[in-house]
Amino acid sequence: MTARKQPVDLWANAAQGVKNRSAGLCECRGECAEKVCAGGRCVNRHQVRALGHRGAVAFLTVVALDKDRGNVAGSNLRAYCQWCLG
Questions:
Q1: Residue 48 pLDDT > 90
Q2: Hey, which residues does 45 pair with through a beta bridge?
Q3: What predicted TM-score, i.e. pTM, was given to this entire model?
Q4: Which residue, 22, 58, 56, 54, is CA-closest to 41?
Q5: What kind and span of H or E run contains 7?
Q6: What's the mean pLDDT when you consider all of the chain?
Q7: How far apart are alpha carbons 61 and 13 in whole angstroms?
Q8: CA 41 – CA 62 distance, rounded (Å)
């Protein structure tokens, strides 16, 4: 009998997949209304100085768009920097 993956393992694996998919870029498409996102995708990169934030470093966080961490479908998950996450 194989061990069943716990929800934490599923989330960690899915989150890593989203970070790989994003290639280190914030996946905001302008819905946050930040100035750097106006008219398109956010330009902030993971662990790089962020544009328009006084040299602060951006960090990506993976979020479930429907707020359900059990729903790890790729279309439900996005990587956001801390400013777009808001």
A1: yes
A2: 25
A3: 0.81
A4: 22
A5: helix 7-22
A6: 86
A7: 14
A8: 16
CA dihedral (69, 71, 74, 78) in degrees, to 10, reads -30
Average pLDDT of the segment spanning 49-76 = 91
Residue 4 has pLDDT above 80, yes or no: no
Residue 40's pLDDT is what? Answer: 79
Q: Which residue ranges make up each domain of the chain? A: 7-85
How far apart, in Å, do the first and last CA atoms of the chain sit? Answer: 43
Report the C-alpha gap between 20 and 6 in whole angstroms: 22
What integer pLDDT is reported at residue 45 of this predicted model?
Answer: 93
Reduced to 3 states, what is the DSSP secondary structure of residue 17? helix
**Contact call for residues 64 and 1 (beta carbons, < 8 A):** no
Half-sphere exposure of 2 (CA within 13 A, CB side): 3
